[in-house]
Automatic annotation (TrEMBL):
Gene3D superfamilies: Sodium/glucose cotransporter. The chain crosses the membrane at residues 6-30, 50-69, 81-104, 124-145, 157-179, 191-217, 237-255, 275-290. Its main location: membrane. It comes from Rhipicephalus microplus (Cattle tick). GO terms for biological process: sodium ion transport. It is a multi-pass membrane protein. The lineage of its organism: Eukaryota, Metazoa, Ecdysozoa, Arthropoda, Chelicerata. This is Putative sodium/solute symporter ixodes scapularis sodium/solute symporter. The keyword Transmembrane applies. It is found in: Cell membrane.
Length: 291
Protein backbone atom coordinates (compact mmCIF):
# COMPACT_ATOMS: atom_id res chain seq x y z
CA UNK A 1 0.00 0.00 0.00
CA UNK A 2 1.30 3.46 -0.93
CA UNK A 3 2.33 5.73 1.92
CA UNK A 4 -0.21 8.43 2.76
CA UNK A 5 2.09 10.56 4.91
CA UNK A 6 5.43 12.24 4.35
CA UNK A 7 8.60 10.33 5.15
CA UNK A 8 11.87 11.96 6.17
CA UNK A 9 13.08 12.17 2.56
CA UNK A 10 9.87 13.93 1.55
CA UNK A 11 10.45 16.61 4.18
CA UNK A 12 14.04 16.99 3.02
CA UNK A 13 12.89 17.58 -0.57
CA UNK A 14 10.19 20.04 0.53
CA UNK A 15 12.46 22.07 2.79
CA UNK A 16 15.30 21.89 0.28
CA UNK A 17 13.12 23.34 -2.46
CA UNK A 18 11.95 26.23 -0.27
CA UNK A 19 15.54 26.97 0.76
CA UNK A 20 16.70 26.77 -2.87
CA UNK A 21 13.98 29.19 -3.98
CA UNK A 22 14.95 31.69 -1.30
CA UNK A 23 18.63 31.13 -2.11
CA UNK A 24 18.09 32.01 -5.77
CA UNK A 25 16.66 35.34 -4.67
CA UNK A 26 19.61 35.98 -2.36
CA UNK A 27 22.09 35.04 -5.10
CA UNK A 28 20.72 37.51 -7.65
CA UNK A 29 20.26 40.23 -5.04
CA UNK A 30 23.94 39.91 -4.09
CA UNK A 31 25.26 39.54 -7.63
CA UNK A 32 23.33 42.56 -8.92
CA UNK A 33 23.71 44.69 -5.80
CA UNK A 34 25.44 47.45 -7.78
CA UNK A 35 22.61 47.61 -10.32
CA UNK A 36 19.89 49.25 -8.30
CA UNK A 37 17.77 50.69 -11.11
CA UNK A 38 14.10 49.83 -11.56
CA UNK A 39 14.81 48.72 -15.11
CA UNK A 40 17.34 46.16 -13.95
CA UNK A 41 14.98 44.89 -11.24
CA UNK A 42 11.94 44.64 -13.53
CA UNK A 43 13.53 43.50 -16.80
CA UNK A 44 16.94 42.16 -15.79
CA UNK A 45 18.43 44.85 -18.05
CA UNK A 46 17.14 42.68 -20.91
CA UNK A 47 19.96 40.19 -20.39
CA UNK A 48 17.92 37.02 -19.94
CA UNK A 49 18.18 34.12 -22.40
CA UNK A 50 15.15 32.93 -24.30
CA UNK A 51 15.07 29.33 -22.98
CA UNK A 52 14.72 30.08 -19.25
CA UNK A 53 12.23 32.84 -20.01
CA UNK A 54 10.17 30.41 -22.09
CA UNK A 55 10.13 27.93 -19.22
CA UNK A 56 9.15 30.75 -16.88
CA UNK A 57 6.22 31.63 -19.14
CA UNK A 58 4.96 28.07 -18.91
CA UNK A 59 5.48 27.95 -15.16
CA UNK A 60 3.42 31.10 -14.69
CA UNK A 61 0.38 29.19 -15.99
CA UNK A 62 1.25 25.79 -14.52
CA UNK A 63 -0.07 26.73 -11.12
CA UNK A 64 -1.44 24.34 -8.53
CA UNK A 65 -4.81 24.78 -10.22
CA UNK A 66 -3.49 23.10 -13.36
CA UNK A 67 -1.25 20.52 -11.68
CA UNK A 68 -3.94 19.32 -9.29
CA UNK A 69 -6.96 20.12 -11.42
CA UNK A 70 -6.17 18.82 -14.91
CA UNK A 71 -5.62 15.15 -13.94
CA UNK A 72 -8.83 15.14 -11.91
CA UNK A 73 -10.77 16.71 -14.79
CA UNK A 74 -9.48 14.02 -17.16
CA UNK A 75 -10.41 11.35 -14.60
CA UNK A 76 -13.94 12.70 -14.23
CA UNK A 77 -14.75 13.96 -17.72
CA UNK A 78 -12.39 12.36 -20.22
CA UNK A 79 -9.48 13.55 -22.33
CA UNK A 80 -11.24 16.13 -24.49
CA UNK A 81 -9.39 18.74 -22.49
CA UNK A 82 -6.20 17.90 -24.45
CA UNK A 83 -7.55 20.00 -27.34
CA UNK A 84 -6.60 22.96 -25.18
CA UNK A 85 -3.20 22.53 -26.85
CA UNK A 86 -4.79 23.77 -30.08
CA UNK A 87 -6.21 26.77 -28.23
CA UNK A 88 -2.90 27.68 -26.62
CA UNK A 89 -1.09 27.31 -29.96
CA UNK A 90 -3.46 29.74 -31.65
CA UNK A 91 -3.09 32.23 -28.80
CA UNK A 92 0.72 31.99 -28.86
CA UNK A 93 0.81 32.64 -32.61
CA UNK A 94 -1.37 35.74 -32.23
CA UNK A 95 0.81 36.98 -29.38
CA UNK A 96 4.08 36.27 -31.22
CA UNK A 97 3.18 37.91 -34.54
CA UNK A 98 0.66 40.61 -33.59
CA UNK A 99 1.18 41.81 -30.03
CA UNK A 100 4.87 41.13 -29.44
CA UNK A 101 6.14 43.33 -32.32
CA UNK A 102 3.91 46.14 -31.07
CA UNK A 103 5.26 45.91 -27.52
CA UNK A 104 8.86 45.98 -28.73
CA UNK A 105 8.21 48.86 -31.09
CA UNK A 106 6.69 50.91 -28.25
CA UNK A 107 9.49 49.83 -25.86
CA UNK A 108 7.16 49.16 -22.94
CA UNK A 109 7.56 46.94 -19.89
CA UNK A 110 3.98 47.03 -18.66
CA UNK A 111 0.61 46.37 -20.27
CA UNK A 112 -0.70 49.30 -18.24
CA UNK A 113 1.97 51.51 -19.80
CA UNK A 114 0.59 50.51 -23.21
CA UNK A 115 -2.95 51.44 -22.16
CA UNK A 116 -1.77 54.86 -21.01
CA UNK A 117 -0.06 55.53 -24.35
CA UNK A 118 -2.92 54.08 -26.38
CA UNK A 119 -5.67 56.14 -24.73
CA UNK A 120 -3.44 59.04 -23.59
CA UNK A 121 -4.89 58.79 -20.10
CA UNK A 122 -3.28 58.04 -16.75
CA UNK A 123 -6.77 57.27 -15.42
CA UNK A 124 -7.05 54.29 -17.75
CA UNK A 125 -3.63 53.09 -16.60
CA UNK A 126 -4.59 53.42 -12.93
CA UNK A 127 -7.89 51.61 -13.39
CA UNK A 128 -6.18 48.75 -15.25
CA UNK A 129 -3.54 48.54 -12.51
CA UNK A 130 -6.21 48.35 -9.81
CA UNK A 131 -8.12 45.65 -11.67
CA UNK A 132 -4.93 43.63 -12.16
CA UNK A 133 -4.06 43.87 -8.46
CA UNK A 134 -7.52 42.67 -7.40
CA UNK A 135 -7.48 39.85 -9.96
CA UNK A 136 -4.00 38.74 -8.87
CA UNK A 137 -4.93 38.77 -5.18
CA UNK A 138 -7.96 36.56 -5.83
CA UNK A 139 -6.01 34.26 -8.14
CA UNK A 140 -3.08 33.87 -5.76
CA UNK A 141 -5.46 33.02 -2.95
CA UNK A 142 -6.72 30.01 -4.89
CA UNK A 143 -3.23 29.08 -6.11
CA UNK A 144 -1.84 29.05 -2.57
CA UNK A 145 -4.83 27.24 -1.09
CA UNK A 146 -4.63 24.24 -3.45
CA UNK A 147 -1.12 22.96 -2.64
CA UNK A 148 -1.52 23.96 1.01
CA UNK A 149 -4.59 21.75 1.29
CA UNK A 150 -2.78 18.86 -0.41
CA UNK A 151 0.30 19.35 1.76
CA UNK A 152 -1.79 19.43 4.90
CA UNK A 153 -3.43 16.11 4.05
CA UNK A 154 -0.07 14.29 4.08
CA UNK A 155 1.84 16.26 6.70
CA UNK A 156 -0.74 17.46 9.17
CA UNK A 157 0.52 21.02 8.75
CA UNK A 158 -2.39 23.48 9.14
CA UNK A 159 -3.49 24.98 5.83
CA UNK A 160 -2.99 28.55 7.06
CA UNK A 161 0.60 27.77 8.08
CA UNK A 162 1.42 26.33 4.67
CA UNK A 163 -0.15 29.31 2.91
CA UNK A 164 1.86 31.69 5.08
CA UNK A 165 5.13 29.82 4.54
CA UNK A 166 4.76 29.59 0.76
CA UNK A 167 3.65 33.20 0.51
CA UNK A 168 6.60 34.45 2.56
CA UNK A 169 9.17 32.47 0.55
CA UNK A 170 7.75 33.57 -2.82
CA UNK A 171 7.48 37.19 -1.74
CA UNK A 172 11.02 37.09 -0.35
CA UNK A 173 12.84 35.88 -3.46
CA UNK A 174 10.73 38.07 -5.74
CA UNK A 175 11.22 41.23 -3.68
CA UNK A 176 15.00 40.95 -3.38
CA UNK A 177 15.94 39.18 -6.61
CA UNK A 178 13.63 40.77 -9.16
CA UNK A 179 12.72 39.23 -12.50
CA UNK A 180 15.93 37.18 -12.69
CA UNK A 181 15.12 35.38 -9.45
CA UNK A 182 11.55 34.79 -10.58
CA UNK A 183 12.61 33.35 -13.94
CA UNK A 184 15.26 30.99 -12.56
CA UNK A 185 13.01 29.83 -9.74
CA UNK A 186 10.39 29.08 -12.38
CA UNK A 187 12.96 27.03 -14.29
CA UNK A 188 13.61 24.89 -11.21
CA UNK A 189 9.87 24.52 -10.68
CA UNK A 190 9.29 23.43 -14.27
CA UNK A 191 11.97 20.76 -14.03
CA UNK A 192 10.47 19.43 -10.80
CA UNK A 193 6.96 19.52 -12.25
CA UNK A 194 7.93 17.43 -15.27
CA UNK A 195 9.98 15.03 -13.16
CA UNK A 196 7.01 14.66 -10.83
CA UNK A 197 4.62 14.02 -13.71
CA UNK A 198 6.89 11.37 -15.19
CA UNK A 199 7.41 9.64 -11.84
CA UNK A 200 3.67 9.50 -11.15
CA UNK A 201 2.97 8.12 -14.63
CA UNK A 202 5.77 5.54 -14.33
CA UNK A 203 4.49 4.46 -10.90
CA UNK A 204 0.95 4.14 -12.21
CA UNK A 205 2.00 2.09 -15.24
CA UNK A 206 4.10 -0.20 -13.04
CA UNK A 207 1.40 -0.76 -10.41
CA UNK A 208 -1.26 -1.45 -13.05
CA UNK A 209 0.83 -4.10 -14.77
CA UNK A 210 1.99 -2.20 -17.83
CA UNK A 211 0.90 0.46 -20.29
CA UNK A 212 -1.59 -1.84 -22.04
CA UNK A 213 -3.50 -2.54 -18.84
CA UNK A 214 -3.49 1.12 -17.90
CA UNK A 215 -4.85 2.10 -21.31
CA UNK A 216 -7.54 -0.58 -21.11
CA UNK A 217 -8.67 0.57 -17.67
CA UNK A 218 -8.80 4.18 -18.82
CA UNK A 219 -10.83 3.18 -21.86
CA UNK A 220 -13.27 1.10 -19.81
CA UNK A 221 -13.76 4.07 -17.50
CA UNK A 222 -14.69 6.36 -20.41
CA UNK A 223 -11.65 8.55 -20.03
CA UNK A 224 -10.24 8.18 -23.55
CA UNK A 225 -12.64 10.66 -25.10
CA UNK A 226 -10.20 12.74 -27.11
CA UNK A 227 -12.72 14.42 -29.41
CA UNK A 228 -16.27 15.30 -28.45
CA UNK A 229 -18.19 17.02 -31.22
CA UNK A 230 -21.38 17.26 -29.19
CA UNK A 231 -23.26 20.57 -29.30
CA UNK A 232 -25.06 19.90 -26.03
CA UNK A 233 -24.97 22.74 -23.53
CA UNK A 234 -24.82 20.19 -20.73
CA UNK A 235 -21.40 18.77 -21.66
CA UNK A 236 -18.64 20.36 -19.60
CA UNK A 237 -15.95 19.83 -22.24
CA UNK A 238 -16.52 19.54 -25.97
CA UNK A 239 -14.07 20.07 -28.79
CA UNK A 240 -16.00 23.21 -29.69
CA UNK A 241 -15.95 24.98 -26.35
CA UNK A 242 -12.36 23.98 -25.54
CA UNK A 243 -10.89 25.08 -28.87
CA UNK A 244 -12.95 28.25 -29.23
CA UNK A 245 -13.44 29.27 -25.61
CA UNK A 246 -9.98 28.44 -24.37
CA UNK A 247 -8.40 30.35 -27.26
CA UNK A 248 -9.88 33.55 -25.87
CA UNK A 249 -8.70 32.65 -22.39
CA UNK A 250 -5.18 31.84 -23.57
CA UNK A 251 -5.07 35.07 -25.60
CA UNK A 252 -5.83 37.12 -22.50
CA UNK A 253 -2.89 35.39 -20.82
CA UNK A 254 -0.33 35.52 -23.63
CA UNK A 255 -1.34 38.79 -25.29
CA UNK A 256 -2.44 41.07 -22.47
CA UNK A 257 -1.17 39.72 -19.15
CA UNK A 258 1.35 41.76 -17.18
CA UNK A 259 3.09 38.57 -16.03
CA UNK A 260 3.87 37.75 -19.65
CA UNK A 261 4.58 41.23 -20.97
CA UNK A 262 7.22 41.71 -18.28
CA UNK A 263 8.89 38.47 -19.35
CA UNK A 264 8.80 39.55 -23.00
CA UNK A 265 10.62 42.75 -22.08
CA UNK A 266 13.38 40.86 -20.24
CA UNK A 267 15.01 39.82 -23.53
CA UNK A 268 17.07 42.13 -25.70
CA UNK A 269 15.47 41.43 -29.07
CA UNK A 270 12.12 40.67 -30.65
CA UNK A 271 13.60 37.58 -32.25
CA UNK A 272 14.56 36.06 -28.90
CA UNK A 273 11.24 36.95 -27.32
CA UNK A 274 9.36 35.36 -30.20
CA UNK A 275 11.49 32.22 -29.96
CA UNK A 276 10.74 31.96 -26.24
CA UNK A 277 7.06 32.42 -26.88
CA UNK A 278 6.84 29.87 -29.70
CA UNK A 279 8.48 27.23 -27.51
CA UNK A 280 5.35 27.41 -25.36
CA UNK A 281 3.41 25.64 -28.14
CA UNK A 282 5.06 22.23 -27.61
CA UNK A 283 5.57 23.01 -23.92
CA UNK A 284 1.89 23.47 -23.14
CA UNK A 285 0.97 20.52 -25.38
CA UNK A 286 3.41 18.29 -23.46
CA UNK A 287 1.95 19.45 -20.16
CA UNK A 288 -1.59 18.64 -21.24
CA UNK A 289 -0.42 15.26 -22.55
CA UNK A 290 1.25 14.37 -19.26
CA UNK A 291 -1.86 15.49 -17.38
Amino acid sequence: MAATHFAVLDYVVLIGFLVLSAGIGVFFAWRDRRHGSNKHFLTGNRELSWLPVSMSMMASFLSSIAILGLPSEVFLRGSTIWTGAISSSMAVLVAAFVFLPMYYKMDITSINEYLEKRFMSTAVRNIASAVFIVQTLLYMGVVLYGPSLALGSVTGIPVWSSILLNGIVCTFYTAIGGIKAVVWTDVVQMVLIYVGYIMVIASGVYNLGGFGNMWQIAGDGGRLIFLNWSTSLYDTYTTWNVVLGWTIGWMSAYCASQTQVQRYSSMKSLRRARRALLLNIPGVALTLLLS
